[in-house]
Amino acid sequence: MKKFRGAITALVTPFQKGGSVDIHSLRKLVQFQVENGIHGIVPCGSTGEAATLNIDEYELVVKTVVKEVDRRIPVIAGAGSNDTSKAIKNSKIAKKAGVDALLHVTPYYNKPTPAGLLAHFKALANAVDLPIILYNVPGRTGSNVTAQTTLKIAKEVPQVVGVKEASGNLPQMMEIIKSAPDGFSVLSGDDVFTLPLMAVGGHGCISVVANEMPKEFSQLVNGCFDGDWNRARELHYDMINLMNGNFIETNPIPVKTALFMMGKIKEVFRLPLTPMGEKNKETLKEILENLKLV
Asked: Which residues are within 8 A (CB) of 91 and not within 5 positions of it... i.e. 6 or more apart?
């Protein structure tokens, strides 16, 4: 199976003023990513507001990204749900659209046991023949997937070829790296953990800040791969204010606001997300100005 590693963008979904998907801006965002050296793209994840996309919009976004990428880099479609049957349906739509892999968040709200998680990923693998990246994000799901459970899933479900780790627990991530099967990717789910995770053997990041700075974020990750830690550190600290600024309100509110300020998308969200507060907006604008992005 293809190795999924590097600087991978968790792509936003731009909307028109009326609320529909802004396909023209979406295509331009994909081109911006590819032209600036990004290693992969994830449409329809948390940053892509997938929770508020209906099934037709989901298919439209995934198809558009696949077509625009044109096989130049991997497309890993977010397809997760807390309903296994819905996750399977999303996965089948994404496979038909031509994606290279699937990103599946662990079921939220339901809070399944380790046995339930294993059964969930087995069902996904049995239903759709594509590589799967497990997404552990306790801040959104309400429960952490331990290293032991992740490793058990990796061993018993070979289609699960990696994990997006957004637990913020570096020792947990190191335990997975230490004991994972050959070829298993451990990717950061938080931009600020990219450098430290790669320093201990991680394989990259599924990133928010790459929406705004794909070239620089790709260079950071490439520096880690090449052992140029001084350059990677320099880029890390250049971007750290924006990495943190992207989370001064709920993701993807800040990153979409930043992209609006950069002239790339309209400032449109879907409820229950709302526009950024004015004080935080001024803080974000100052960060962007210091980086010469606006």
From this structure: 79, 102, 104, 124, 127, 128, 130
Residue 111 within a domain = yes
Where would I find the H helices in 70-169? 84-97, 114-127, 138-141, 147-156
In terms of Cα–Cα distance, which of 36, 39, 38, 48 is closest to 10?
48
Please state the domain count of the chain. Answer: 1
pLDDT at residue 73, rounded to an integer: 96
Distance CA 160, CA 63 (A): 23
- DSSP assigned state of 75: B
Terminal C-alpha separation, the chain:
41
Angle at 186 between CA 180 and CA 190, to 5 degrees: 150
> What average pLDDT does this structure show over 61-85?
97
pLDDT of 1 above 80: no
Residue 131 CB contacts under 8 Å (≥ 6 apart), including other chains: 1, 2, 4, 100, 101, 102, 159, 160, 161, 162
133 within a domain of the structure (yes/no): yes
Q: Which residues of 224-246 are buried (b: 16+ CB within 10 A; e: fewer)?
A: beeeeeeebeebbeebebbbebb
Query: Which residues form the catalytic set?
Result: 135, 164
183: domain CATH number? 3.20.20.70
Domain assignment of residue 171, yes or no: yes
Range of the domain at 118: 6-226
The CA-CA-CA angle for residues 166, 11, 217, to 5°, reads 70
Task: Please write the tens of the pLDDT for every residue from 174-216.
Answer: 999 999 999 999 999 999 999 999 999 999 999 999 999 999 9
Please answer whether residues 260 and 22 qualify as being in contact, where contact means their C-beta atoms are separated by less than 8 angstroms: no
The distance of Cα 221 from the centroid of its chain, to the nearest Å, equals 15
Does a structural domain hold residue 249?
A: no
**Residue type at position 271:** L
Helix 214-226 and helix 229-245, axial crossing angle in degrees, nearest 10: 140
